[in-house]
């Protein structure tokens, strides 16, 4: 949490969309399967380009994605042994970021290297620590749904949404927006059950009531048929818990007996200099039914269903971003208490930008 004695502007009074995500956490920048041996991938954390390198042997490492010579992306280079060579003049950099070879210079004349980032792999993702590297060992990786639990089947997803990352947190936390999904979910209404909050986190709990008989097939296959009575609202017995544990977000669904039947992990990584685009990394874990192979049969239907829901969310969040841009700032009139508290959490835990007319990220490492 930011130092309360710091003389910087009060984050609670600033525009939420001018609050950058705190770099002192582990963020996934790519899926492990997408980075082959002897290859590189170019990624971004905000305005910071980062090259991920997987040598022929050894673990992945992450470097600033530019050659110190002519600033050409190292992600376009050639992996050679435990190093990557710039595609332009062949300057070579090791996992420490130090320049270890310039083909046309003597070894005693090597220039300075580039920045390196702590890097780990977990849950099929490549995580990078973009902030103060000295803090990396003391900051744990997040809980990654049930990706390592064989009782669950897990789906990966990573859409790009053209909006500030805070819109994503608000969207999932506020289940009152089910009206948006009426074509996919039918007539369903969220019922707020309570909340919990503490150092760096906030959680909301909901149940849902269905007032029509339009239960989606994917929902029925996973949770079972909810018996409908046209004369009254029917309670959906599952409890949905949504938690932002900064900077990550999770959604858990428990059945009437308290057993976990679905868990979502998601993190929203800014991938543009102006903060107006976000790369999502998500894991959706679903409890395998007792019937063997049934989960494999319903998996395509679940994928179609969740994709349709997310596309509706994507469209609305991008409209929110466009409105922020057109209106010149955040003019939201928020009335739901849990979302108001969420917004405060995101402001306090994040990094306030300089208040300039142009919403450009100004965070520098070490500032």
From TrEMBL:
Organism per entry: Gluconobacter kondonii
UniProt KW Iron-sulfur keyword: yes
Q: Where is the Rieske domain?
A: 26-128
> What protein does this entry describe?
Rieske domain-containing protein
Q: Which InterPro entries match?
A: Cholesterol_7-desaturase, Rieske_2Fe-2S, Rieske_2Fe-2S_sf, VanA_C_cat
- Which keywords appear in this protein's UniProt record, sorted alphabetically? 2Fe-2S, Iron, Iron-sulfur, Metal-binding, Oxidoreductase
Keyword Zinc included in the entry's annotation: no
Q: Which Gene3D superfamilies match?
A: Naphthalene 1,2-dioxygenase Alpha Subunit, Chain A, domain 1, Rieske [2Fe-2S] iron-sulphur domain
Q: What is the lineage of its organism?
A: Bacteria, Pseudomonadati, Pseudomonadota, Alphaproteobacteria, Acetobacterales
One protein family per Pfam: VanA_C
């Amino acid at each position: 949490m930011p130092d309360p004695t710091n003389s910087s502007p009060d984050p609670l009074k600033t525009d939420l969309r001018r609050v950058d995500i705190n770099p002192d956490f582990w963020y996934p920048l790519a899926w492990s399967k997408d980075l082959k041996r002897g290859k590189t991938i170019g990624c971004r954390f905000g305005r910071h380009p980062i090259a991920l390198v997987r040598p022929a042997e050894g673990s992945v490492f992450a470097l600033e994605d530019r050659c110190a010579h002519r600033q050409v992306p190292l992600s376009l280079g050639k992996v050679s042994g435990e190093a990557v060579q710039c595609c332009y003049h062949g300057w070579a950099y090791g996992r420490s970021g130090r320049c270890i070879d310039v083909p046309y210079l003597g070894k005693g004349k090597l220039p300075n290297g580039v920045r390196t980032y702590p890097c780990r792999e977990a849950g099929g993702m490549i995580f990078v620590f973009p902030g103060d590297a000295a803090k990396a060992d003391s900051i744990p990786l997040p809980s990654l749904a049930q990706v390592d639990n064989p009782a669950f089947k897990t789906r990966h997803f990573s859409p790009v949404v053209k909006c500030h990352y805070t819109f994503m947190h608000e969207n999932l936390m506020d289940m009152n927006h089910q009206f948006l999904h009426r074509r996919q979910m039918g007539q369903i209404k969220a019922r707020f059950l309570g909340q919990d909050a503490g150092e760096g986190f906030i959680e909301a709990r909901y149940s849902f009531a269905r007032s029509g008989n339009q239960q989606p097939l994917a929902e029925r296959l996973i949770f079972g048929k909810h018996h409908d009575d046209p004369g009254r609202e029917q309670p959906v017995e599952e409890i949905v818990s949504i938690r932002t544990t900064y900077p990550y977000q999770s959604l858990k669904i428990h059945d009437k007996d308290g057993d976990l039947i679905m868990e979502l992990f998601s993190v929203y990584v800014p991938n543009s200099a102006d903060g107006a685009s976000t790369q999502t990394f998500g894991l959706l874990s679903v409890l395998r039914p007792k019937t063997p192979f049934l989960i494999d049969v319903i998996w395509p239907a679940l994928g179609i269903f969740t994709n349709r829901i997310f596309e509706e969310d994507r469209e609305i969040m991008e409209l929110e971003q466009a409105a922020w841009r057109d209106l010149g700032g955040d003019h939201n009139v928020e009335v739901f208490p849990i979302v108001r508290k969420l917004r405060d959490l995101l402001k306090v835990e994040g990094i306030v930008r300089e208040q300039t007319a142009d919403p450009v990220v100004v965070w520098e490492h070490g500032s």
